[in-house]
Amino acid sequence: MAGIDLYKEIVFGSADSTTAQRISDLEKQGKLRKIAPRLYTTNMKDSPEAIVRRNLIEILVWRFPNAIISHRSAYEMRPTGAGELFLTTTQNRRITDLPGLGVNLIKGHAALKSDIPYMGIYISSESRWILEVLESSRKSGDESKSLPQTFVEERLEKMMLQQGEAKLNAFRDQTREVAQELGLTKEYEKLNKIISALLSTHQADVLQSASAVATAAGEPYDASRLELFDVLFEQLNNRFFTSLPVRYPDEESFRMFAFFESYFSNYIEGTEFIVDEAKEIIDSGLPKPRRDEDSHDILGTYRVVSNREEMSRVPHSKQELFDLLRHRHAVLLQGRPSMQPGMFKQQNNRAGDTVFVDARLVQGTLAKGFQRYEALQDPVARAIFMMFMISEVHPFNDGNGRMARVMMNAELVHADQCRIIVPTVFRLDYLLTLRKLSRQKNPEAYIQVMQKLHAFSQNLYGFDYEAINRYLLACNAYEEPENARLIVTERE
Question: Partner of 119 at 20 to 30 A CA spacing, among 125, 146, 237, 432?
Answer without folding.
Answer: 146
